[in-house]
Design a protein that fits this description.
The complex is a heterodimer of chains A (272) and B (326).
Chain A: H1 6-38, E1 52-55, E2 59-61, E3 71-75, E4 86-87, E5 92-94, E6 98-105, E7 115-121, E8 126-131, E9 161-163, E10 167-189, E11 200-205, E12 210-215, E13 226-246, E14 264-271
Parallel strand pairs in A: 1-7
Antiparallel strand pairs in A: 2-5, 3-4, 3-6, 6-7, 8-10, 9-14, 10-13, 10-14, 11-12, 11-13
Chain B: E1 10-11, E2 14-15, E3 24-27, E4 43-48, E5 54-58, E6 65-68, E7 74-78, E8 85-91, E9 97-102, E10 107-112, E11 117-121, E12 140-143, E13 149-152, E14 159-163, E15 169-174, E16 189-192, E17 199-204, E18 209-214, E19 219-224, E20 229-230, E21 234-236, E22 239-246, E23 257-261, E24 267-271, E25 278-279, E26 282-283, E27 296-301, E28 307-311, E29 320-324
The chains are: A mainly beta (272), B mainly beta (326).
Chain lengths: 272, 326
């Protein structure tokens, strides 16, 4: 059977190839393990001055991510950015309301969480705001800072107004009686800093008619820090509106600051 | 500035952290220990002793002080009495001593290297600045070559108290306030041996900077690091290293990184944070770029230039080790 010796040589060659294959397999296995291990680090999201932008005619949104090897991708239509989304190269200029989402990407890393920038084209309609005043130390600029089209920064000390009374009431006067689509109010939640969303928010006409009513989830455990724009549809002719907000009378029992008065933090009110 | 795609530096299939002359590869799991038998809580600070051992201080009272070799083997542990173990410094040549602060017990201590408490300091009532124990929440000490001690009250009323070699108060400065000489979250202190004459560097963590004082407590300058809420300054060779607990303000959870400055106070490398960038001659704010760290609390550079990073409130992890790459 092995007279010409060929089968025996085949076995030897095959054993040699098998050893080589095993070696390559082991090498590749460890190589991919290392690459996979790198891929467990997530990128942080890109930086942008504010996640809420209020503008009148047009504005440009900039991002920054000073990490060599990483890029920013974005989508203007509210979709989650993915590997095929546009690459950010320069500030994105817009002239209408959009929801802009951006993420950081780099090979070998988990892409970042999405950063969402809500851009609202506002109408230059607000003439005056009066009512409950912000309290020290979060009262820089007074009530007029609430309608200056400038969103608050990342720090609670940066253009945010703080209110501490159980009920907060503001009267917003327009330049003339006019039809408006929506009214937006931008709030912060940072419960570790005793900053809570309110219990209830009402929108009332000057004649006392209830135009909108919003209830917030009852706070039963620590909620994530966030800033968010809450919008009421109006769609009617008005000379102004009253916003009435009911806050928690005291910080809930689950919180280390229980029993104390919480803060309501507002940076901007605008109309569309 | 937006970098081009795929320029992450990879060396021998491993990510390179940092830039310029301070670049490292990560050895995340270098510690060879079992957390069920050797638990840590907040890993607050580290030093290296004369035997080359890495000394870690944690507020886990099952083993407040842990000694590792550079390969991560646990050599020894001691300490059950420091629930607020926070600052750790080492002094001495032939015979070494540890100085530890406790933010829960409002005290700081001098111990032998194997854990015998030699001296305890309570709140510095003789200074005239303090009226009760709870005002004093010491976070760091530094000891001069001749044995004088400075203690930073980083979680208290922000004074730096200077004791002579007999343990008597010699001076007190800093304190809370809005002037340049004042401090807010005076979390760390070190002696800058690079300067002539030697000076003190003190952390002002809330205002993202280090402040330089003479040894007599006169304010000299501020080294501003916007966006970087720095912990203690650590000087090794010509460089200043610091863990950044959070960025860009102390309100932002799990946003830390590590920063390295040269002798001219220029940022030369940032591990897991944004590269240094200047606008009109001023540093642009730093921020986290890689979510490797949660809350880095201290860095230590060993005699082989390896960098160790320990963390507060980060899932009770052991310190991470970074090895320099050429």
């Amino acid at each position: 059977m092995f007279a010409n010796g060929t089968p025996a040589r085949c076995i030897l060659i095959n054993l040699f190839l098998l050893r080589k294959l095993i070696f390559h397999f082991v090498f590749l296995f460890f190589f991919f393990c290392r690459v996979f291990a790198q891929g467990t680090i997530q990128l942080a999201p890109p930086q942008t001055p504010s996640t809420r932008v209020f503008f009148h005619l047009s504005t440009c949104i900039s991002f920054d991510f000073r990490q060599p090897g990483a890029i920013i991708r974005y989508a203007l239509n509210g979709d989650e950015p993915d590997e095929s989304s546009a690459i950010y190269k320069e500030p994105i200029c817009i002239s209408g309301s959009v929801v802009l989402k951006a993420k950081s990407f780099a090979k070998g890393f988990i892409s970042s969480e999405t950063i969402t920038v809500k851009c609202i084209k506002t109408k230059d309609a607000i003439k005056s705001v009066s009512g409950t005043n912000p309290e020290e130390p979060y009262n820089k600029g007074g009530l007029s800072a609430m309608v200056d089209k400038l969103a608050g920064g990342k720090s609670i000390r940066d253009r945010w107004l703080g209110f501490r009374s159980d009920t907060v009431v503001w009267e917003i006067g327009f330049f003339k009686k006019q039809k408006l689509k929506k009214i937006h109010i931008s709030l912060m939640q940072a419960q570790a800093s005793w900053i809570f969303y309110p219990v209830k928010m009402e929108l009332i006409s000057f004649s006392g008619k209830m135009l909108g009513l919003g209830f917030f989830n009852i706070s039963t455990s620590q909620a994530p820090d966030e800033t968010r724009i809450f919008s009421f549809p109006i769609d009617r002719k008005l000379k102004g509106v009253i916003i009435r907000i009911q806050n928690y009378s005291s910080i809930p029992d689950w919180h280390s600051g229980k029993g104390n008065k919480p803060w309501l933090f507002v940076d901007e009110i605008s109309v569309e | 500035m937006i970098a081009k795609e795929n320029l992450f530096e990879i060396k021998n299939d491993e990510i390179v952290f940092g830039q310029n002359e301070k670049r490292y590869r990560l050895e995340k799991d270098w510690v060879k220990a079992d957390a069920s038998t050797l638990p840590v809580n907040d890993c607050h600070e580290m030093v290296q002793d004369a035997k080359g051992r890495i000394v870690l201080l944690t507020n886990e009272t099952k083993n407040n002080v842990i000694f590792f070799d550079k390969k991560g083997k646990v050599l020894e542990t001691w300490g059950h009495d420091f629930p607020g173990a926070h600052g750790l410094s080492i002094t001495g040549n032939d015979e070494q001593f540890l100085f530890a602060t406790d933010t829960v017990k409002n005290q700081f201590y001098k111990t032998t290297i194997d854990g015998r408490v030699l001296q305890t300091w309570n709140y510095p009532v003789e200074s005239g600045k303090y009226s009760e124990t709870k005002q004093f929440v010491p976070t760091e000490t530094v000891i001069t070559k001749n044995g004088e001690v400075y203690v930073a009250d980083g979680y208290g009323i922000q004074y730096i108290t200077h004791y002579d070699t007999d343990g008597k108060i010699k001076n007190i400065f800093g304190g809370r306030g809005t002037e340049e000489k004042h401090l807010d979250n005076a979390h760390g202190i070190c002696i800058d041996y690079r300067a002539t004459p030697e000076t003190l560097l003190v952390t002002d963590r809330t205002r993202c900077c280090f402040k330089r004082y003479s040894l007599a407590g006169e304010y000299i300058e501020t080294i501003s690091l916007p966006g970087a809420c720095v912990c203690r300054p650590v000087i090794k060779g010509d460089y200043l290293y610091a863990a950044v607990l959070r960025s860009p303000t102390l309100e932002n959870n799990e946003s830390g990184f590590v920063i390295i400055l040269n002798k001219q106070n220029k940022v030369v490398s940032v591990l897991c944070g944004s590269e240094a960038a200047y606008e009109n001659g001023k540093l642009k704010p730093f921020y986290q770029t890689l979510k490797l760290f949660k809350h880095p609390h201290d860095v230590m550079v060993d005699d082989e230039e390896n960098l160790y990073v320990c963390q507060w409130n980060s899932g009770k992890v052991y310190p991470y080790k970074f090895v320099p790459v050429a």
